[in-house]
Every structure is written in C-alpha cells, then in structure tokens.
Amino acid sequence: MLKQTLLSQKTKFVLLMLVILLCTTFLAVNCYVVNIGKKSIYTADTVPDADAILVLGAYVYPDGTLSNMLNDRLITGYELWKQDKAPKIIVSGDHGRTQYDEVNAMKSFMMDKCVPGKDVFMDHAGFSTYESIYRARDIFQVKRVVIVTQNYHLSRAVFIARALGLEAYGVASDRQDYGPVMIQYQLRETAARNKDFWLAAIIKPEPTFLGEAIPVFGDGGATDDQ
Q1: How many structural domains comprise the chain?
Q2: Most buried of 48, 71, 128, 168, CB within 10 angstroms?
Q3: Cβ atoms of 142 and 90 closer than 8 Å
Q4: Backbone angles phi, psi at 117, to 5 degrees
Q5: What are phi and psi of 69, to 5 degrees?
Q6: pTM of this prediction?
Q7: Does residue 9 surpass a pLDDT of 80?
Q8: Domain that holds residue 60
Q9: Strand arrangement of the beta sheet that strand 88-92 belongs to
Q10: Are strands 41-42 and 120-123 parallel, antiparallel or unpaired?
Q11: What's 20's DSSP letter?
Q12: What is the CATH number of the domain that holds 93?
C-alpha cells in the first residue's frame, strides 16, 4: 500500500511539472511573438514605404455589410495608399464559399473610394493570417509589405511575415471601441500566437491553395475572376 501511495504521489508530481512546463512555454512563446512583432509596428505617418499594403479580412454580414473591424481596416489601408506608402493594395480574406465573400466586399470598398481596380489585388484564399501572408509572398511576389489589422492581432501578423522572410511593417487600424467581444478575441489571440509561432518559424506548411504567381506590380484585375 505504501509503495502504491508513493508511486501515485510521484505520478502526480510529474504531471504537475509537465503542466507547469507547458504553461511556461505557452506564455513564453506568446511574449516572444508579441515582442518580435511590435518592433516593426509604426503609425500611418512613420511607416516605411512598401511594395503593397496588405489588408487582412474580417467578418462580412450576409447582406454584404462590413463588420466594424473590417471597415476600420479598409479605411486605414485606403489612407495609407492615399499617403503613397505603397502603390498597390492586397485585400485578403475568406472566399472559400460562393455564399460568403470577404474579398469582393473589400475591393468594392476601395473602388467606392476611387482606388483604381488595377491597384487592388484580391486574395480569395486568405483563410487565416498565416495563409494570407504566405500567399502575399508566393502568389503576389511581395517583398516589402505594410500589414493592416487591429492592434491585438497586429504583432502576430508581423511576426509571421518576418518569420517567412518578408520585410514587414504593421499599422494598427483601431478606430473605435469594439466592445466586450475583445475579451474573447484577446484570449483566442494568445492561443493563435502559439500556433503560428510553430507554423511560421518551424514547420512552414504550404497554405490550402497556391497557384500561379500574380505579381503585385501588375494589374489587380487579374484577380477579379478567381
């Protein structure tokens, strides 16, 4: 009986140490991603020039209305384009189903602002932050990029881009208080930073879809019918 008790205590101790190790690693990776990413975050006025502005997608309502987060990302991306921070804009999001389309809604926003269609490239297969950035590099041949998204998400996006070899800079698009949902987003982001650390820095898997290159230095109309 004493031997069984000692073995049980040893097992519990080992499990406790494993939990502590996992938690410590989780928090350390989270801090590492944030610290690396925030070194390349700028204001709209100070961000260096780039090949393209990459606006990351967010929710679009069934009637085509943009969510507040996406609308703010697009306004910020447009303002950067107006400031000549880059000659081209890539709008990257989820268009994996015919009934759900982020990227055409995003391009329509830019067209309504009188951005020429040739300057707006649609990435229809930006199903995640990692995939959007991987495809910006390999499909659109971007080398220097300004990434636009909300601040809670921005350090991870910049970290991914840097880990994939891009000269990447970030500009936050927070233009309002997004409400209680941000608590959920912040918690989810901590897990996402850990996931994307392993994807971008270690594993580097190909995205769901690749394909022929569509250099961002050409005409964005080439992405209209995909």
Answers
A1: 1
A2: 168
A3: yes
A4: -55, -30
A5: -60, -45
A6: 0.92
A7: no
A8: 27-204
A9: 41-42, 167-172, 144-149, 52-56, 88-92, 120-123
A10: unpaired
A11: H
A12: 3.40.50.620
